[in-house]
Amino acid sequence: MNEEVSHKIELLKESINKFDYHYYILNDPLISDYEYDLLYNQLLALENDYPEFITPDSPTQRVGKDLTKEFKPIRHLVPMLSLTNTYNDDELYDFDRRVCDNLPSDSVVEYIVEFKIDGASVSLRYENGLLVSAATRGDGVIGEEITSNIKTIRSIPLKIDIKKIPEYNLSKIEVRGEIYMELNDFRRLNEQREIRGEKLFANPRNSSAGTLKLQDPKEVALRPLKIFAYYLLSDSEEFQSQSENLEILDKLGFRINKQYQVCKSISEVIEVCKKFEELRDKLPYEIDGAVIKVNSIKQQTILGNIAKAPRWATAFKFKPKQVQTKLNNITWQVGRTGAITPVAELEPIFLAGSTISRATLHNFDEIVRKDIRIGDTVVIEKGGDVIPKVVGVVTDLRDKNSKITLPPIQCPACNSPLVKPENEVAFYCINSECPEQIKGKLIHFASRGAMDIEGLGEAIINLFVDKGFIKNFIDIYTLYQKKDELIQIERLGEKSITNLLESIEKSKTQPFEKVLFALGIRYVGAGVAKKLVEHFLTIDNIINSSEEEVSSVYEIGDSISKSLKTFLSDEHNINLINKLKNQGLIFISEKKEIGDSPISGKTFVLTGTLPTLTRDEASEKITKLGGKVTSSVSRKTDFVLAGEEAGSKLKKANELGVKVISENEFLSLLGEQKK
Fold first, then answer.
1. How far apart are CA 412 and CA 330, in angstroms?
2. By CB count within 10 A, which of 128, 348, 481, 618 is most buried?
3. In this structure, are residues 535 and 592 in contact, taking their beta carbons and an 8 Å threshold?
4. How far is it, in rounded angstroms, from Cα 550 to Cα 675?
C-alpha cells in the first residue's frame, strides 16, 4: 500500500512540475486552472495522510508556514560583482580596446549582449539537483539567506534534472538571476494596496527587492515575482562561453531571457544596444540598459576583475526617460555633513515606473546655471533611472512675473547662519547639534551596510531624536536604560523595543571595517574603510599614522587621507571613538592566521600587467598573509611586483634599490606553483 501511495505522489509531483514549467517558464498552459487545482489538492491530501512521503522539492512545500525572524549571512562562492557603466559609442569602443589590450595579441573576441533587467539579483545553490539555499547579492561578498521566500516563486525550480546534460558534472552548481515584477503585475499590486489603504510601492524594482526580505513566506507568495536566470557556476566544471551557459540553464528548466545576441565585433554590439533601446518601451518589464560580456569564459578568467567590477563585462545605460511637470516649490534639506541641498517639490507625475513628486536640484550653483524658478515648467529625468533630477526649464512656458531663486541664508532645521567654503558649491550648517545633521549621521550609522541595527530605521531615529532619547552614537548603546519609557511610546510596545535592544547589542559584533564606515567620515565609503582596516589593522594605528602614510595605501588618494586625518585630529571625535570602544564596538581587525608567513609585515607595490594574476588577486594573497599593499614606491617598500608595461614605479624602484620581483618569483615566495 505504501509503495502505491509513494508512486502516486511521485507521479502527481512530476505532472504538477511539468504543468508549472509550461505555465511559468514557457508561458504555454497545458491545462485549465481548475484541472491544475484538482491535481494540487489531490497531492496535498495524500501528503497530509502520509507525511512521511513529503519531500523538500514537493510543489506543496513552496510556501513555508514559519516566519523568518532573521536573514542569516551567506558567503557567495564567487563574489557577485557590480558592473561599470558606459553611456555612448566611444565608451563602448574604449571598453573593447581595454579588453583587447589585456588579452594575448592573437585573441579573437566575441561578445554577448543581454537585457539589463531592472530587478534584484539573487544566487541559488543546487546540490544533486535540489535547491538548498538562496541569497541576496548583499555587498557582493556576503548576502542574506532568503531560501524560504525564493521557494515561493514558481518560475524557480525546486528540483532540476541534471541527467539531462550528462556531459557535465552539475552535482553542485550556483545559478544567478534577476528577480523582477512585470509592469502590469506591479500596477495591479499597487491598485490592490490603494484599495486596502496601504502605502504604494515606488517602482517594480524596489517592490521586488523589498518582497524578498519579507518575514512571512505566505505574503511573498502573493506577490507576482518572476526570475530571469543569467549565469551558471560549477564547483567542478569550466564552461566554454556565456551563450553555452544560458543554453544549459534553459535545458535544465530555468527561465532565461532568450533575446540575447552573440556579436563578432564591438560595432555589432553597438547596433544591438541601439535595437534594444528601441524595444525598451514595448517590453512587459523594465530594462534600463544592456549588459555586454566577453563570451569566452576562458577570456573572462584572463581579464579578471578590478575592485568590485569585472574587466570582461560592462553595462550600456540607455538615455533616461524625460517628462515635463510644474515646479511648485524649492525646499532645502540638511545632510549628515551639514551640506544644504535644494529639493524640487513637483506636481506629481509618472516616470520610468514610479510617481515622482520630488527631485534633486543638486546645489545652488546649479539652480543659478539653469535659472530654475518656483512656478516653472521643468523637465525631469531619472539619473541612472533611479534618482529623479531637474535637467532643464521650459522657458517658453514661464510666467513673466516669476522671481529668481535666492540662496539660503539660515539652516532650515536650526536657523543657524550658513557658510559657503571657498572652492565648494555647497552651503553648510556648522552647528554640530543641528537636529537634522544628527538624524542623518544616526541613520547612516544604523544602516545595513554599517552597524546593521534592525528596527532602527529613519522613522524611529527621527522619533527618538525629536523626543530627546538619542543625540549621538553613544546614546544608541544606552537606550536599554530607558526601556520602560520607550515601551510607553504609541505603536511601539515591549516586543518591538525588546527586539530593537537585542539588535543594538548584536551590532557590537560588526567587524572593524563596518564600524569605521559607520562613523560617517567624509570620503570613507565601505570599500575605502575595508582597505584602511586591511592595511592598518587597528584604529590606534590609523590615528597615529601620518597623512602621507594613509595616502600611500593602495587606491587611497589625497582627498581621503586629508579628510580622515582631519576627522581624527578632532578631540570630540577621538572621545567618541573611545566611548564606542568602551561600549564594546570592535576597532581592531580580525586576527589573521598568518603563521610563519614569509611576507608578514612586508610592503608591496604592484605595477604593470601580471601574466596570470589580476592586481586584486595578488593584493588579496598579500593581505591574507599579513603583508601590505601601497600605491607608491619609497625606501620603506620591500618588494615591487612588476608585470608587463611597468612604468614609473619600476623606474623608481630601481633608483631606490628596492627589490623587484616577477609573478613567478612572487608565487615562489608564497610557496605556490605558477598557474
1. 12
2. 618
3. no
4. 33
Considering the candidates 13, 116, 441, 514, report the single residue annotated as catalytic: 116
Close Cβ partners of 643 (under 8 Å, ≥ 6 residues apart)? 607, 608, 609, 610, 611, 662, 663
Are 143 and 80 in contact, with CB atoms under 8 Å apart?
Answer: yes
When divided into structural domains, the chain yields a total of 6
Mark whether 505 and 533 lie in a shared domain. Answer: no
Cα gap 259→241, rounded to integer Å: 17
Residue 457: inside a domain, yes or no?
Answer: yes
Angle between helical axes of 458-466 and 435-446 (0-180°, round to 10): 140
Long-range CB pairs of 59-63 (<8 Å, 24+ gap) are 59/13, 59/16, 59/17, 59/20, 59/158, 61/151, 61/158, 62/151, 62/152, 62/154, 62/158, 62/221, 63/151, 63/152, 63/217, 63/218, 63/221
Q: Are 65 and 215 in contact (CB under 8 A)?
A: no
Q: What is the DSSP letter of 467?
A: T
Question: Which pLDDT does position 470 carry in this prediction?
Answer: 92
Measured between alpha carbons, how far is 10 from 4 in angstroms, rounded to an integer?
10
- Report, as an integer, the average pLDDT of 258-282: 94
Say how far apart CA 481 and CA 453 lie, in whole Å: 18
Average pLDDT, the chain: 87
Question: For position 657, which CATH number holds?
Answer: 3.40.50.10190
pLDDT band at 593 (very low <50, low <70, confident <90, very high): very low
**Residues 611 and 665 grouped into a single domain:** yes
The verdict on whether 274 is a catalytic residue reads: no
Looking only at the bridges linking them, the beta strands covering 313-317 and 85-86 are parallel
Domain that residue 575 falls in: 512-582
pLDDT tens-digit series, residues 29-50: 788 877 877 888 888 888 787 7
Q: How far is CA 324 from CA 121, 286, 364, 376, in A?
A: 32, 21, 21, 10
Has residue 675 got a pLDDT over 50? no
Whether residues 250 and 288 share a domain: the answer is yes
Task: Answer whether 83's CB lies under 8 Å from 310's CB.
Answer: yes
470 and 476 in contact (C-beta within 8 Å)? yes
- What global pTM score does this model have? 0.60
Backbone dihedral region for residue 384 (phi beyond 0: left; psi -120 to 50: alpha; all else: beta): left
How many angstroms separate the first and last alpha carbons of the chain? 58
pLDDT tens track for 98-143: 999 989 988 999 999 999 998 899 999 999 999 999 999 888 888 8
C-alpha cell at 111: 561578445
Residues 213, 71: Cα–Cα separation, whole Å: 8
- From 376, 367, 306, 314, select the one nearest 342 (Cα to Cα): 367
Is residue 410 assigned to a domain?
no
Same domain, 106 and 172: yes
Side chain identity at residue 119, one-letter code: G
Q: Say yes or no to pLDDT of 326 above 50.
A: yes
Residues 369, 255: one domain? no
Q: Are 633 and 658 in contact (CB under 8 A)?
A: yes
CATH number for the domain spanning 12: value is 1.10.287.610
CB 82 within 8 A of CB 307: no
Q: Are residues 160 and 297 in the same domain?
A: yes
Residue pair 564/550 in contact (Cβ under 8 Å)? The answer is yes
53 and 132, same structural domain? Answer: no
CA 667-671-675 angle, to 5 degrees, is: 45
Residue 417 in any domain: the answer is: no
In 3D space, the residue among 556, 541, 540, 527 whose CA is nearest the CA of residue 629 turns out to be 556
In a domain, 210, yes or no: yes
Q: Are 416 and 431 in contact (CB under 8 A)?
A: yes
SS3 547: helix
At residue 312, does pLDDT exceed 50? yes
